[in-house]
Amino acid sequence: MTPAMVRLRRQLVKAVETAAAGGKPVVPDGGILLWQCFRDLNATRSNGFGPGPISYLEIDAYLRLIGMSLQAHHIKILRLMDEAWLRKDHAGPSRSSGPAPSITPNAFDAVFS
């Protein structure tokens, strides 16, 4: 990856972290297309048990629908942006925070009935 691509990746990840924290992101001119792709994909994220990562399948379907193709390093940047978004403000409890809270059978039935 060229130094310019490394810089773009860093700037886009920073923009995602800023947006996830409620700030106004600074999107570099060279990253506007990837930023729009990320925003479109992020807006369709499933949220059944908390936000999950954007999958390669979702990226592929999105790109096919809009008639665009990206190179592998662009897909990697999208995935890094997604990881930053999940990590910054929307991640669940970490594994190091202790055991998951227990759930009673009645609570389970209330959620899944």
Describe this structure in words.
This protein has 113 residues and is mainly alpha-helical. The protein is built from five helices and no strands. The chain has helices at 3-20, 32-43, 56-66, 72-88, 105-112. Helix 2 (32-43) packs across helix 4 (72-88). 16% of the residues are buried.
Write a brief caption for the model.
The protein has 113 residues and is mainly α.
Fraction of residues in H or I helices: 55-70%
> What's the end-to-end separation, in Å?
50 Å
Return the string of H and E elements: HHHHH
Structural class: mainly alpha
Element layout with pairings:
Layout: H1 3-20, H2 32-43, H3 56-66, H4 72-88, H5 105-112
Helix pairs in contact: 1-4, 2-4
Features of the shown structure:
mainly alpha; 113 residues; elongated; single chain
